[in-house]
Protein 1
Amino acid sequence: MPVSKNEMLNPQEQSEGTTMYEDIRVACCLSDAELRKRVATLLARFESAVIATGEPPDGYVFRVRR
């Protein structure tokens, strides 16, 4: 199911004209093997939750089930 332009914007963007992401730095102390396993687990969970996708000019948008 395609995602409409209005659904791509979050409420903060619609009302304030801002984006919801900022330059946030994260540190990780997992070993290489632990990180590969964690990434695979999270990607599998994300892929199973996606119910719609879209491709606006500036990237991708995904709708996921709650």
Note: Confidence is low (pLDDT under 50) at residues 11-16.
Protein 2
Amino acid sequence: MLLALQMNMLLETAAIIGTEIANANAVDGFSNYEICQRSGFRQYPTWDRSSRMRVEWNGAGVRAESLDPRHPQEFVQSRSVERHTGPQSPEGDNSFISTSIAPEDL
């Protein structure tokens, strides 16, 4: 009720001065709402652990309904395999064409 009276006084004062208030219902200062970084919904913080904001694996704070957990397949590591270095087959000898080739031969 007190807020409604203050808003009416503010609007009357703005009408007397002749200024326009673009967003008269805006509240200056901090609010207790938390904004979900995935969906953009705002949520009032509660003591209930199931409805609190959670931090995802990428650092984004999201609602419990929008939580996207990391896939378990991302944690799978491959087995270490011994790698053998060096040539797998012997290198062939250098053989070059010793005769000259004329355009008619092609």
Note: The radius of gyration is 36 Å.
